Amino acid sequence: MNFDPRYSGRNFTSVGTRPIRPDGVDKVTGRARYGADFNMAGQLVGRVLRSPHAHATIRKIDTSKAEKLAGVKAVITAADLPDLTDGDAAMYDILDNCMARKKALYDGHAVAAVAAVDARTAKQALKLIEVDYEVLPHVTDVDEAMKHSAPLINDAIFTEGLEEKPVKPSNVTKRTQYGHGDIHEGFGQADFVVERSFKTEQTHQGYIEPHACVANVSSDGTADLWVCTQGHFVYRQHCAQLLGMEASKLRVTSSEIGGGFGGKTHVWAEPVALALSRKAGRPVKLVMTRDEVFRASGPTSATSIDVRIGARKDGTITAAEATLRYSCGPYAGMWAEIGAMTAFACYKLENVKTVGYEVLVNRPKTAAYRAPSAPMAAFAVESAVDELAKEIGMDPVEFRIRNAAQEGTRSSYGPVYGPIGIGPTLEAAKNHPHMKAPLGKNQGRGMACGFWFNFGGQTCTDLNIGMDGSVSLAVGTVDVGGSRASLSLVAAEELGIPYEQIKTVVADTSSLGYNDMTDGSRGTFSSSMATISAARNAIKILRERAAQMWDIPVDDVVWEEGHAIAKGATHGNLSPLSLKEIAAASGKTGGPIAGHSELVADGAGVSFATHICDIEVDPETGSTRVLRYTVVQDAGKAVHPTYVEGQYQGGAAQGIGWALNEEYIYGKDGRLQNPGFLDYRIPVCSDLPMIDTQILEIPNPNHPYGVRGVGETSIVPPLAAIANAVSNAAGVRMTHIPMSPPRILAAIEAERGG
Amino acid sequence: MRYIRPLSIEDAAGLLADSAGTAAILAGGSDLLVRMKGGFIEPDLIVDIKAIDGLGEIRETAEGFSIGAAVPCAVLGENTALQKAWPGVVEAAKLIGSKQVQGRCTIVGNLCNASPAADSVPALVAAGAKAVVVGPRTRRTIAVEAVPTGPGKTSLAKGEIIEAILLDKRLPRSGDAYLRFIPRTEMDIAVVSAGVNLTLDEQGRVKSARLALGAVAPTVVLVEEAAEVLIGSKLDEATLERLAKVCSGACRPIDDKRGTIEFRRKVAGVLARRAATTAYARAGGK
Hints:
heterodimer; A: alpha+beta; Aldehyde Oxidoreductase, domain 4; B: Uridine Diphospho-n-acetylenolpyruvylglucosamine Reductase, domain 3; Enolase-like, domain 1; 2 domains; 11 helices
């Protein structure tokens, strides 16, 4: 069916209001069902045995003793997950990551799994599995891994993207390059040049709910999987492919989700649970411990980045260059490439060049983390931009406004921008009272900008009208941040009925067509587009039914404010038919009324933000306190402003944790030393101020309401904004994230001493 | 695993003395249950001491205060007399974990867990607190600093339980204070900590002093040299600087995931100076 996604200005009735979310009451009363809340009769407990070594050849695994333990129903190794990936390298990596095949590639890599009648037996069984390892030299640091002398993680990897084909294998899987113009010429025109190197440590998304699933494989080869995921359709595809099933034979139901932030876009435990269930012939529940989540799910990259930016005295940037090295864990990724694309996306540049290197290390496989790769690149670039403004003697906001990208600018990663929000967020920040608030002793203010692409993707939605006139909306994008409320608002808007008349659910994979997962800030963007399309299709049927009830041509029926209205001189005395009235008669006018939609939501509008923060530094201890924090971001159109603000605040809160304290700490033995929330320090409530938000609405031309994705951009500026604030407060430029107290104190002491 | 809830301290001590495998004492459980869940310990016997008469009470006696082994730290903060007499001890107890944890955890548990970073221990050592140790047929009173002997290790013999912590009656013109460094605001473990306890003479000079540092050595460090620096002074700037230096020098820290050697040395001095200043003000010093 034809659907016109173009933006058309309109006055909204429901969209832009702030009703209570449909999942709210169950969540605050504990009734909501998360991944570990599903149970089945006869269910077994699954547990995974993990490598204690960062890098080791698996010579032999002896599971015989574990198999003999009473209560053990299945023990599996890689042999129970044969390679069915048929040359698909990315899928092979996923398979190998789920269960190590020849080598354990990081501390925590799964090597075997058991299903037993209870947790105690399962734990005992793990102790009875004997793994014969040959421990190999390992490397966990991104810069160390690039050296020629570094231990090779995969000797079949030869760096792609080099001019000359390399003859030796390397831990660098790929080199990528972006940009335009001539940077040598650009730097030649510069009066001031800032050049610096930065490092960021690896962080985890820190979702409170660990990975959890229940798998039930029937003897007829069909299966059910209940799981906490950001994308049950993608989990279905991956699990089905790895287990050799047809996708339609595996029904995946997504649970409520206690945070994902990109970390639940990837299968780890699910194929293992299915393989255990298949072998045991009983349902298997597999819940990761926090220790396992840290050691063996998908944190973001550690990075090492060099930046060089030059500008003229008048504040115009003449050239910008960055080299970005991102850790990928032991499997190839495209994390540095995304960093290279986003690094200078906020600016209008004549000459720009970015180079990315994907680097293998003996750490868990890198997964997406909210605007993956962009925060680290923004940290490096926005720190250098701040320093350059200072050298020129310009206000950092004015300097950025002068160089900001605008409609028609060719972006540093290629495309030409349409209408964008970087300029307006900077102007709003400049005029925000926060910018003028006085600062006390040892306090500093910082600001920074951030960019994220956003994504649309495949989407499918069903809208069913009940005979009582209530509406159920079935969507296929998992609700990670209030999208069921937002999509109900969109359906209410289109149909012209109250929000309360609509109930939105996330349908399982057998009940709806394929949907891409909730990533790339696409949940509300894409599913709202599909919901508008489905609602418009339903309205077409509602109009037909009304025409039938009135016995007039359908072209004479229009839909307004939840009613069919007969137009034209001859139907003057027909009173409007409500949605309820038409629904009540549907049994006699042709049966159920529904609207469907299947589309690819193209044209996700890019999103920009500017953040401001004030930090106090204790110069004697390096301790920091976030005093005030303001987020200004373009939402295109805020469908449910409260949840848009929630996304802004959530991204800022995660960014604050990342900037100040969160980091993976590996020992010399290559083992993770802090796999728990005690020593992996996400901020607690009392660490954060109330995060102030300002929503700007620069409509996305490619969405009927102008909606842009809002979920990810908010984590892009914080590392840089906080680094700029700390640097201003401490009087020394901070170049290593996280800026933990020992790092800040050491920097202050070095500055004093030097 | 056996779980027993005896009604007398002697019974509890007897159970522990006669136990064959691993035995553990349960009061608040804020260390024990976490260690059990983490798989670090699988006790064969758990002796819950919360039902023992008197162990859940704070008693004020002619000699001072007796704090029972099962008194949750939150209760310390609700005892006005204790709070007035020993604010440093109380603030240390109220820094452990979070509000929820403080509702369960005890200072005796904190002491016997024998973590070098235990929050209440430096404050108790600075306060000169004593521990009443009960065995199946014995009863002795020892200095708090004699209890931990190394990370996770104590001087208690098999079958011995600490029944109570004793704090002296307060002399006039006395004050104590405790400070710890953590990267966050709560829910954390001390990277460095300092407890200071001072008594002043009528002229406002320090007459007696005790200073203890936490998380900078395998056990809590009672810095006797720091007391020497403080005694006779009015905490002028030169004294405080000397104090910081002495305290930094008394540290025998390690580099670990929570902090570096240099960081711990430096911050130990800073916290000692700041805690001494607070204790001095609480003692009425100007």
